[in-house]
Amino acid sequence: MREIALAGGCFWGVDEFFSRKEGILTTKSGYSNGHKLNPTYEEVCTGTTGHAETVYITYDENVINLETILLKFFKVIDPTSMNRQGNDLGTQYRTGIYFIHPEDETKALEFIAKMQPKYTKPIVVEVEALSNFFDAEEYHQDYLKKNPRGYCHIDLSIE
C-alpha cells in the first residue's frame, strides 16, 4: 500500500474521481499544508489558513502506480491555473502533489517535466512534502456519493 495527497481544486470531485479508479483503496477529503491546526471548512475558505483542499489517497501499487495516478490527475485539473480550478478561486483551490514518501518527490518532478511540453503555459502544480493533513468534516467525505447532483468542476467519466 502506498499513499499520496493531491490538491486539485474542490476536493469533492477529486475524491469521487479517484474513488472510482481500480487500485485506489481509500480516499479522504481534508486540508493540507497550512499553518492552522484542525481548521474548519469555513476557516479554510477565508484563504487565511494556508491550507489546500486535498484528497489523501491510499493505493495498491501492484494495481496502479504513481505515474498512472498523476496522469489521471492531470486529466481532471488545469495544471497551469494558479489558485483556481473550475469556478473555484482562492489559494485553498491550488493544485498540489503532496508526497509522503521522499522518493515520490523525484517521481512527481520528473512527471511534471515530462508533461510541461504539452502545455503552452508553465505548470504551477506544487510538489511538496505533506507537512500536515486534517480530515475535512464528515459531510465533505464522499460528498458526491451522498449528493449525486452536487457541484463538481471535473468530468467524472474521464478514465
Automatic annotation (TrEMBL):
The keyword Oxidoreductase is annotated on this UniProt entry: yes
Active site per UniProt: 10
Top-level lineage group: Bacteria
EC number per UniProt: 1.8.4.11
Protein's GO biological process: cellular response to oxidative stress
Keyword Glycosyltransferase: no
InterPro entries: Met_Sox_Rdtase_MsrA_dom, Met_Sox_Rdtase_MsrA_sf, MsrA_MetSO_reductase
Keywords: Oxidoreductase
MF annotations from Gene Ontology: L-methionine:thioredoxin-disulfide S-oxidoreductase activity; peptide-methionine (S)-S-oxide reductase activity
Domain Peptide methionine sulphoxide reductase MsrA, chain residue ranges per copy: 4-153
Catalytic activity: L-methionyl-[protein] + [thioredoxin]-disulfide + H2O = L-methionyl-(S)-S-oxide-[protein] + [thioredoxin]-dithiol; [thioredoxin]-disulfide + L-methionine + H2O = L-methionine (S)-S-oxide + [thioredoxin]-dithiol
GO CC field: cytoplasm
Class of the enzyme per the UniProt entry, highest EC level: oxidoreductase
Role, per record: Has an important function as a repair enzyme for proteins that have been inactivated by oxidation. Catalyzes the reversible oxidation-reduction of methionine sulfoxide in proteins to methionine.
Family of the protein in this entry: Belongs to the MsrA Met sulfoxide reductase family.
Protein name: Peptide methionine sulfoxide reductase MsrA
Organism name: Proteiniclasticum ruminis
Lineage: Bacteria, Bacillati, Bacillota, Clostridia, Eubacteriales
